[in-house]
Write a structure and sequence with these properties.
This protein has helices at residues 29-40, 52-64, 82-96, 119-148, 167-186, 205-209, 215-222, 234-245, 263-266; strands spanning 20-24, 44-49, 72-76, 101-104, 150-155, 192-199, 256-259. With 296 residues, it is of the alpha/beta class. The chain has a single domain (19-265), classed as NAD(P)-binding Rossmann-like Domain (Rossmann fold, 3-Layer(aba) Sandwich). Strands 3-2-1-4-5-6-7 form a 7-stranded parallel beta sheet, sandwiched between helices. The longest helix is centred in the middle third of the chain and has 30 residues, at 119-148. Bound molecules: ligand LGGBLMCM and NADPH dihydro-nicotinamide-adenine-dinucleotide phosphate.
Length: 296
């Protein structure tokens, strides 16, 4: 029987009652699923992103959702803007009086061979994913968590072997993980934990719209490469985020949890065939000993 993951939770009801969270990119896809899960467990949630239209639609859906127990609010914020991020954290605190949890989910990238990336395109992706995460962490810490403790989860990406055609994003996400490790140590004395969740390929209509015509061929190529033979759901990512925020993860900090159906165990999100011809790759020794099947 199909289960409605969007309206139920694997966690006990009321688990996060009396807590408050800020979720960046909380109006769509994975961020919206995280907001919904937190609200279902009794947490008050501020969602922020650039588009007021997306935020309004999300807020409307969350407020109509009978499973959402906590209070929801929204505030436009571009995480690349220091002033916006400062205002988003201040707004969340003003509304709910506390900020126990921060989820840095807002982000993204575009597909491009590295050789074609402009400096501005590289900068846009690094600013969105790495600078934006840093700014939100710093503001949450200085405005509230330094005195009161808290838990932070950053959404990164399965990319430990790099991410061909998304080199800008792979570099930024690796930076986010290293940032998390530094902050986990620096801020431990304030009772702040910080971890990352690295999704594999998760189907979100909003996320894949971003890739236009390139999205479908990618899906066709990647699904067979996942050991679980399917893509992930936003709710599967949200569930991992909630566990890391919860007191059940009290001894976990500075870590990255992959939610990827095993994809990180077997290679790249992009099939190697997609990275071009390899006949130019040099050989040392006698190339003639390699049978045809050993050299494509
Ligand atoms: C199919 C593979 C899936 C793999 C798994 C991953 C899935 C996901 O992550 S799903 C999430 C998808 N959602 C998003 O990515 C949404 C957020 N993304 C964005 O907003 C943009 O990608 C952004 C991060 C680049 C920010 O855009 P914006 O601030 O609007 O950027 P500008 O228009 O100011 O452009 C700056 C710079 O970047 C170049 N650029 C932007 N888009 C593209 C593109 N599609 N292709 C090539 N270049 C692009 C743009 O040209 C600018 O550079 P210059 O022209 O040199 O000034
Ligand atoms: N889906 C997948 O397979 C994977 C996704 N991820 C990451 O997970 C996160 C969520 O992705 P997903 O839900 O799939 O896709 P979405 O496109 O639905 O989510 C991206 C969200 O980030 C927000 N956002 C983008 N740029 C900014 C910005 N500058 N300031 C504030 N908010 C911003 C967007 O809202 P708005 O446009 O209103 O600003 C949107 O809500 C992203 O960081 C994504 O890269 C990682 C690995 C795989």
């Amino acid at each position: 029987m199909a289960r409605d993951y969007g309206r139920s939770s694997a966690f006990r009801p009321g688990l996060l009652a009396g807590k408050a969270a800020l979720v960046t990119g909380g109006g769509t896809g994975i961020g919206l699923a995280i907001a919904r899960e937190l609200l279902t467990l009794g947490c008050d949630v501020s969602i922020v992103s650039r588009s007021a239209v997306k935020l309004d639609a999300a807020l409307d859906a969350l407020r109509r959702d009978g499973a959402c127990v906590g209070r929801a609010r929204a505030q436009p914020c571009n995480v690349r803007s220091e002033a916006d991020v400062r205002g988003a954290v201040a707004g969340a605190l003003e509304a709910f009086g506390r900020l126990d949890f921060l989820v840095n989910n807002g982000g993204g990238q575009f597909i491009s061979p590295a050789a074609d990336l402009s400096a501005n395109g590289f900068r846009a992706v690094v600013e969105t994913n790495l600078l934006g995460t840093f700014l939100a962490c710093r503001e949450a810490f200085t405005q509230y968590m330094r005195e009161h403790g808290g838990a932070i989860v950053n959404i990164t990406m399965v990319n430990r072997n790099g991410f061909p055609r998304m080199a800008h994003s792979g570099a930024a996400r690796a930076g986010v993980l290293n940032l998390a490790r530094s902050l986990a140590t620096e801020w431990a004395s304030s009772g702040v934990r910080i971890n990352c969740v690295a999704p594999g390929i998760v189907y979100t209509p909003s996320g894949f719209e971003n890739y236009g015509a390139m999205g479908e061929p990618f899906l066709n190529a990647v699904t067979p490469a996942v050991p679980c033979k399917r893509l992930g759901t936003a709710e599967e990512v949200a569930s991992a985020v909630v566990w890391l925020l919860s007191e059940g993860a009290a001894y976990v900090t500075g870590q990255e949890l992959s939610v990827d159906g095993g994809l990180s165990l077997v290679g790249y999100p992009f099939p190697l065939a997609d990275t071009g011809e390899h006949s130019a790759f040099p050989v040392y020794g006698d190339a003639a000993v390699l049978p045809p099947a050993a050299r494509l």
